[in-house]
Amino acid sequence: MKIKVVDVNGKEIKKLELSDEIFGIEPNRYSIYEAIKNELANARQGTVSTKTKAEVVGSGAKPWKQKGTGRARVGTKRNPVWTHGGVAFGPKPRDFSYVLPKKVKRLAYRSVFSMKIKEDNLVVIDKIELKEGKTKEFLTLLKNIIAKEGRYTLVLTDKDLLVKRAARNLPFVKTLSSVRMNVKDLFYSDKIVLTEEAILSVNEILQKDLKEKVKNKE
Questions:
Q1: Would you tell me how many other CB atoms lie within 10 Å of the CB of residue 29?
Q2: Which HAMAP family does this entry report, sorted A to Z (predicted)?
């Protein structure tokens, strides 16, 4: 498939040939859901902790005798039924992360990119060059490329350090590296903006994974 490439003024300058297997598939929404769920789970700290009746401060003595008082039987003031007692079945520190199959993750990337292209929400710019890496300079450039307001994800290469520095102060812009992306930011963005070098890098990485998949089947 072919996708248009624009310059810093938003004018089309050429067409770029990309793989249909990556940017032109029927989006698989289940893979996107699984990938985002995995990313959110892996980001959880899992440090929340409550105290059981063995851990709270308090006497271990029996408050009153078992029989004859007319009150309910109780063994310790630290029991979960009482105020300031322990917590029954409360959360403890744990690791929420798990490994998602690689083929599901790659399918999610291909689905998100294909979906954004179908919705006309993917923009490829030939290159982004900033003289000083200032936020104001970057904002002017962004307005030339995209007229409407929204939430944007900017996919760059590791060489675009000035652009990353200029965009990091903007709450509505998320910058990602072409070799370290995540499905959540790509999916929830109104527009994905990639440099030509970045989209070629993504195309190469995902194409390589497809070739490995075919080879493994053989």
A1: 13
A2: Ribosomal_uL4_B
The CATH class of 2-45+98-217 is alpha beta
Q: How many CA atoms lie within 13 A of 135 on its CB side?
A: 7
Return the number of other C-beta atoms located less than 10 Å from residue 170's C-beta: 15
CB atoms within 10 A of CB 212: 13
Rounded Cα distance, 210 and 182, in Å: 19
Q: What residue type is assigned to position 92 of the chain?
A: K
Give the pairing of strands 2-6 and 173-177.
Answer: unpaired
* pLDDT tens for each residue of the chain, 218 residues long: 888 888 888 888 888 888 899 999 999 999 999 999 999 999 999 999 999 999 999 888 999 999 999 999 999 999 999 999 999 999 999 999 999 999 999 999 999 999 999 999 999 998 888 888 888 888 888 887 876 778 999 999 888 888 888 888 888 999 999 999 999 999 999 999 999 999 999 998 888 877 666 555 55
The segment(s) of the chain belonging to CATH 3.40.1370.10 are 2-45+98-217
